[in-house]
Amino acid sequence: MTPRTTATRLREKVTYDEAVAHAILDEALVCHVGFVVDGSPRVLPTIHARAGSTLYLHGSTGTPLLRLVDPVDGGIEICVTVTLLDGLVLARSQFESSMNYRSVVVHGRGHLVTDHAEREVALHRIVEHVSPGRSATSRAGNARELAATAVLRLDLVEFSVKVSTGEPEDAPSDVTGPHWAGVVPVALRFGAPIPAGDLATGIELPDHLLDYARPGA
Amino acid sequence: MTPRTTATRLREKVTYDEAVAHAILDEALVCHVGFVVDGSPRVLPTIHARAGSTLYLHGSTGTPLLRLVDPVDGGIEICVTVTLLDGLVLARSQFESSMNYRSVVVHGRGHLVTDHAEREVALHRIVEHVSPGRSATSRAGNARELAATAVLRLDLVEFSVKVSTGEPEDAPSDVTGPHWAGVVPVALRFGAPIPAGDLATGIELPDHLLDYARPGA
Q1: What's the ipTM?
Q2: Residue B102 above 70 pLDDT?
Q3: Does B80 contact A36 at a Cβ distance shorter than 8 Å?
Q4: Is A202 left (phi over 0), alpha (psi -120 to 50) or beta?
Q5: Which residues in chain B are closer than 8 Å to A131, comparing Cβ atoms?
Q6: Residue A3: predicted pLDDT
Q7: Of residues B172, B107, B33, the one with CA closest to residue A79
Q8: Planar angle of CA B168, A22, A115, nearest 5 degrees
Q9: Is-contact A44 A101, C-beta < 8 A?
């Protein structure tokens, strides 16, 4: 826990539990990565993946975040946030209305990964993060593709987790009032895989895509 | 279009169309807001709402973002990003694999809203953003609640939109290869509303919650 990961509000349940953070990071398909450009904040969506206590991001070598990496130490200050939305909390009072969600905010200095073996691990994890089993049923990057891909590593050391669950918490004077209260559950829905229009006849859907779901969901 | 909203990559379709940006902002339930704290980036999830060409955020007056507002002009540099995930694009090659999504990145200086009438409009829009019709079936904030709530306005002037749609785009040498390719559709699923455990008997679910859906979805 550091000053920037210390909760200033108590409404959500804040935790620093590593297992909880890892589970949320693994379930979330995308993250939002924040960085500073000429003193101003920038936030972009991207895919992440975790390997142990390390978070990996990847992107084109030409993408803004990766062009800003310090040439001396190969690093850049980033903040990676993932949010899983679980429900709309509709209280009788608008003030108590909120959302149920699970989020992780990770702070730290991302570093370009230059080691070939670690780059391979990271890209493998990213493929598997989106679709477990897919690395065995797709073509891995060739030398040209790998050269065009940058990988950033962020150690999962400085992070906070917020988990907001449960029912509306209206004051007694509102509970006896005229308004409905409750929760609308929210989750991601994955449709049946749609084959590419140019898919050759005889190529079957791989087993790992038969019933796509996120881990933990 | 400004340097920081000018696309550096062509894979996704970048647009600066205001109607497209507004539709994505309206459909997205939450945004991720980035700001700078002591030179480092911070990214937090929050609820937003749009009124014309203005984006509103709100929060406790004690929340980190709002405590950082400049006391002189009531402003703070922020970046607000929303992302709607539409599909997993599983190409034969891992390099061409990606996601279908729609995102908006808004840059600018947020300003605390002090005008009472504008604060009411903003909070009304935020309630209606999450659940259209809800403002009429819930209790609006009282003086104490409103005093504890800060509202930030961000003009929707400097923004960019990325829309990535369609099928995997594998090279011909991969199309004739052994791997399956296609898209797994992704969308939010809203469950049937769950009444609060302490809901008084006789209070019916409001009509506007009978078939919850996001606008445009």
Answers
A1: 0.94
A2: yes
A3: no
A4: left
A5: 88, 90, 184
A6: 58
A7: B33
A8: 65
A9: no
Average pLDDT over chain A, rounded to whole?
93
The pLDDT of residue B63 is: 86
A204 vs B contacts (CB less than 8 Å):
180
| DSSP-assigned states of every residue in B147-208 | HTEEEEEEETTEEEEEEE-S-----HHHHTSS---EEEEEEEEEPPPEE-TTPPTT-PPPGG
Q: Cβ distance A31 to A81 under 8 Å?
A: yes
Amino acid code (one letter) for B15: T
Residue A4 pLDDT = 62
Report the distance separating Cα B214 and Cα B28, nearest Å: 8
Distance of alpha carbon B119 from alpha carbon A199, whole angstroms:
54
Compute the distance between CA of residue B33 and CA of residue B31 in angstroms, rounded to an integer.
6
pLDDT at B107: 98
Share of chain B above pLDDT 90, in %: 87
Strand A75-90 and strand A54-60: pairing? unpaired
Angle subtended at Cα B25 by Cα A58 and Cα A91, rounded to the nearest 5 degrees:
110
Q: What value does the mean pLDDT take over residues B123-139?
A: 97
Q: Are A212 and B62 in contact (CB < 8 Å)?
A: no
The count of other CB atoms within 10 Å of the CB of residue B169 is 16
The residue of chain A with its CA nearest to that of B44 is: A81
The shortest C-alpha distance from A5 to chain B (Å) reads 10
Mutate to test the interface with A, among B33, B43, B76, B154 (most CBs of A within 10 A): B43
pLDDT band (50, 70, 90) for residue A8: very low
